[in-house]
Every structure is written in structure tokens, then in C-alpha cells.
Amino acid sequence: MKYLDEEDINKLALGASLLGTGGGGDPYLGKLMAQQAIEKYGKVKMIEVEELDSDAKVATFAMVGAPTVLIEKIPSFESFTLLYEEFVKCSDNKIDAIMPIEAGGVNSIIPIIFAAINNVPLVDADAMGRAFPEMQMDTFNLNGIHNTPAVFADEKGNTAILNTKRGDWTEKITRSLTDVMGGSVLNGVYLLSKDELSKYAIINTVSMSIRVGEILLEYKQPIVELEKFLNGTILFQGKIHDVERRTDSGFVKGTVNLTGLNEDYKSECHIEFQNENLICLIDGVPRCVTPDLIIVLDLETGKPITTEKLRFGMRCFVLGLPADDKWKTEKGIETVGPGYFGYHYDYVPL
């Protein structure tokens, strides 16, 4: 157990941005909201799964929608309170702890705001080990725990409750709902037991994100330390010469192309993303594909660059990390592998 303070949030925002593989929303805005929440409501207690009571119920909260929208449409604390109250009424159960649904971007930080406002602990775990673009792409749904009822709230005071037959229908209907509600909404889904977390959650991802943030802040050129700590591989070094990006059906979709620098000066790198980076080709050959993590880092500082901030002329590292083993099953690859997103490549682990 530990208490998260404003400095922890600063580190978490950096580390979560890296694990978000380019997506998950702008962590800077989430950091400011979380730091304000801690200043107003007090520090957040972070606990491990094992510290939960045997009958505890753990909820997950996040934002759903296009990451670019969050830059212009920031939710108020009133929206957080509204969603929390609606979620408690919908589940007819009290919430004993809160957990991030993904380890990436703003969605690593949104749960801290809920925890601070409502004085409940945060569990050091998540359900992806990274960020993914669609709602059914988590380890609980992967193991047969259904992701509805799902509760939504926007900044205008509107709420919605969704019940579906399958996780993929939750995703499809949510996208339409998100478009109508302004492109991004707060979302509460799952009320999980300690046993379910023990079996299916990816543990210690919050503390790992904080450590990644520490490395990014401590080292002037942190890439070597990141490689060692995360068991990563530098895939490419290059300069961005072309970015194509659009907001489509609640996603930020696009491509980025890099011309090689240093030892990669004769090569080209092509990355495709849907909120998150999904596929990395080097000289036309797949080098790293989802669910493994593809991360774009600033060549000088090592800081992660989210997909909405990619710009012409940026000099970058492309870092690859192996996905958690929970995704490397037949069903996991069917759910988040390259074939699901329409790419005709086999998944070959990094």
C-alpha cells in the first residue's frame, strides 16, 4: 500500500503515455485533472490485488472516444460525480476500490480522479497491460466476463446505460453513442471480485508506469534504461516525413512514415494506428504487430509521442515491447491481433 501524491501523478502520466502505444488520450490533461483532484480531495491510496478483502467489489472507469477530442473537451468533476453515482445505482452495489481498464494515456489517470473524489483506493493493476482502441479488448471480456451494463456520462449532464448480448456489440453501440455525446465520454464498466482480478487482471501496471516515468525524468537519454526495464527492442531511428491522421467513428486513424537516421539511414519505417499504434513495417516487412507494443519516442529526450501529436520533422525512436502473455492465446490474437484490424499478417511475437 502507498499513497499517490502529485509527484507520483507526474511520473505516472509520463509512464502511462509510453505504455499507451500512442493512444489512450493526452496524459498531460489527465495529469492536471488528477493533481487538482488530489489537492482538493486528498491523496489516493494504492493497493495490490492481494490487499483487497475477499468480498470486495472493484469498478473500472475510463474515457471512451477519440483522443484528439479530449484536448478541446475536458470533463468537469461534476461529470465524474454524476457517472459514479449512476454506476452505483445501476449496479446496486457499493464500490470498494477502483482500477484502470488500461495501462495507457489518460485512462491510467482518470480512475485516480474517481478514487480521489470518492475516497476509495486504487488497485495496482489493469486489464490490458497497454492501451487498445475498442471496448471488448480487455482480459476480463476475453475470459467471458461481460462488459455491460456500461454507464456513460458527458459534460452536459447526460447519462446513458447500455446492456448488450456480446462485448463486440457494446463497442459498436458505444461508438454511435459517443458520437452523439460529443466525441468523448466518461464510462464505468465491470464490477469485479477479488478472485476475478487475481485470475485475469494484469498486475502492478500502475506502479510499473510510475517507474517508467521516473526513468524518463531521471535520465537525459533514457532509452537504454527503458530497454532493460521493459525488455524492449529499438526497432528504428528516423525522422517523420509524412503523417496522415483523421477522426473517424470515434477513433483517431492514420499512418506515419519515417526516413531512417544513424544506422537506419538506408531504411524506411511505416506505422499504422487506430488511436494506438498497431503495426510497424520496416522496408515493407512487418517488424512488430499488435498485441505487441509499438511506441514512438523523441530521439533526444526519450519522451513518448502520442498519435495526435506526431508532426513532420520529428526525430524519433520506435521501440517495441512484448505484450503480456494473456494476449498470446488463440482467442487473444483473434481479439486484438493484426487480422482483427484488417491486416494480412500473422502475429509473430517480438
UniProtKB/TrEMBL annotation:
A Pfam cross-reference name: S-Me-THD_N
Residues covered by the S-Me-THD N-terminal domain: 7-163
InterPro entries: S-Me-THD-like_C, S-Me-THD_C_sf, S-Me-THD_N, S-Me-THD_N_sf
Gene3D superfamilies reported for this sequence: CV3147-like, CV3147-like domain
Domain S-Me-THD-like C-terminal: from-to ranges: 168-350
Protein name, entry field: DUF917 domain-containing protein
Organism lineage string: Bacteria, Bacillati, Bacillota, Bacilli, Bacillales
